[in-house]
Amino acid sequence: MQVYNLMPDDKTHKSSATFQYTVKKGKDQVMQFKETSAEMKQTGDQVTSSGFCLLQRCHRGSTVSR
Predict the structure, then answer these.
(1) Nearest to 32 by CA among 41, 22, 40, 42
(2) What are the tens digits of pLDDT across the range 19-31?
């Protein structure tokens, strides 16, 4: 997922974004995963989140919603 036009903080001159993923199987939540732009070392005006770490932990038959 790519996010554009993030506004930088006036003091730090860095943007801040949080991505939260929820994995469900049917109506049941299997897991939840959260990552920030700082953890991804992407603090500019655009961020690309692959969700790769999350997908490695998914079980067959699970669906990912973002």
Answers:
(1) 22
(2) 888 888 899 998 8
